Hints:
The protein has helices at residues 13-24, 67-70, 123-132, 147-160, 176-184, 200-213, 230-234, 242-253, 306-327, 334-340, 350-362; strands spanning 4-9, 50-57, 92-94, 137-140, 163-166, 188-190, 217-227, 265-272, 279-290, 294-305, 331-332. 33% of the residues lie in helices and 20% in strands. The mean pLDDT is 92.
Amino acid sequence: MRKIRIAIVGVGNCASSLVQGINFYRGSSANGTGVGLMHKQIASYRPGDIEVVAAFDIDRRKVGLDVSKAIFAPPNCTQVFCDKVSLTGAIVKMGCVFDSFAPHMADHDPLRTFLPLEKESTREQIISELKDSATEIMVNYLPVGSDEAARFYASCALEAGVAFVNNIPVFIASDPIWAKRFADKNLPVIGDDIKSQLGATVLHRTIVDLFRKRGVKVERTYQLNTGGNTDFLNMLSRTRLTSKKTSKTEAVQSVMSERLADENIHIGPSDYVPWQLDNKVAFIRVEGRLFGDVPMELDVKLSVEDSPNSAGIAIDAIRCCKLALDRGIGGVLNSPSAYFSKHPPVQMSDDEAYRCVEQFIRGERDR
C-alpha cells in the first residue's frame, strides 16, 4: 500500500492530534470501526497510510526531537488520546520565524522558551528537506496571523513540487494569484482556514441555514469563543485577527438569505482563559423574527477539545489532496476546499459541499 508522505509546518496542538489520530486508527481492531471519522477510507487510503516525513517549528523545546516526541512537548496541551505513537524518523527542523511569533507571546513566557535556540533554516535548506524526504503534501499549522510565514512556506512547497493543505486563515487557495501559481505547477491546494469536525463555525452555519429554510429572518448574531491553548494566546493580539475574522464571518454570511450589516454580526475569538487548556467553549446567539414578525432568540453553548476537532477534518483533507496528486489534478480543489475550509474560493452550503466532495472522492468530478 502506498503511503501519503506529509511535511508539517508548526508542531503544535493540531499537529499533535493529527499524529495521534494517524496512530490511533492504524491497524487496531478496536479502533478499526472508524468511530469519529467522516471517512474510514478515501479511495484506497486509510488514516494510517499517512506518514510524517518532515516537520518544521521554531520552539526550542521541539526542534531536534522526533515528531512523535515533539507533539507532546510544552506548550502543547491537547488531550492525549493515543499515548503509543510510533517513532516517525522525522526530526523537527528549525524553521523560519517571520511573523509566526507574536511579540506579546514573550510576555507570557518569561523564560523565552518559545524563542528559537538556533539559527533559522534558509529557504534552500527547507526546500532541500522537502525534496530529500520525498514529501508529497505540506500541511500548514502555523499560528493565526502568520501571513508572511505562510506565504513563504507556500512558495517553498511550489519550488519543491509539493501540494499544500492550508489550515490557517491566510488566503492562499482563495487568492487568485496563489491559486494560479499552484495550477501552473499542476500541484493541488486545499484551503483556506480549516473547519472543525463539529465546531462553532459549522454549528453556526447550520443554525443560520435552518433559520433560512424555515423562513425565519435573522436580525443579529454573534459567536464568542474562549480557550486556553497557544492559539488563543496568540490571538490576544487583535492585529493578527483580520483574516481570521473575515474567514469566520464570511463562512456564516455565505449561508444567509440576506447579508447582515457589519454592526449586526460579530464572529471571532474572544478571550484567552489559561485553565481551559485545549478546551474551546463557544457561545452562539441568533436573534430573528418568525411568523407574524414575532421575535425569537436562540442561545447555544458548545464545549469541545479544539485540536482533535480540527484533526478530524485534516485527516480527510490530506487524503483528498493525495487523490488529486494520483489523478494528476493541480490547482485549487474547490469541492474539498468548500467542505473542509471556512474561506474557500467557492463557498457552498454544507449539504452541497458534502455532495460535491463525495463526487470528487468517487472520481465523478475533478475538483
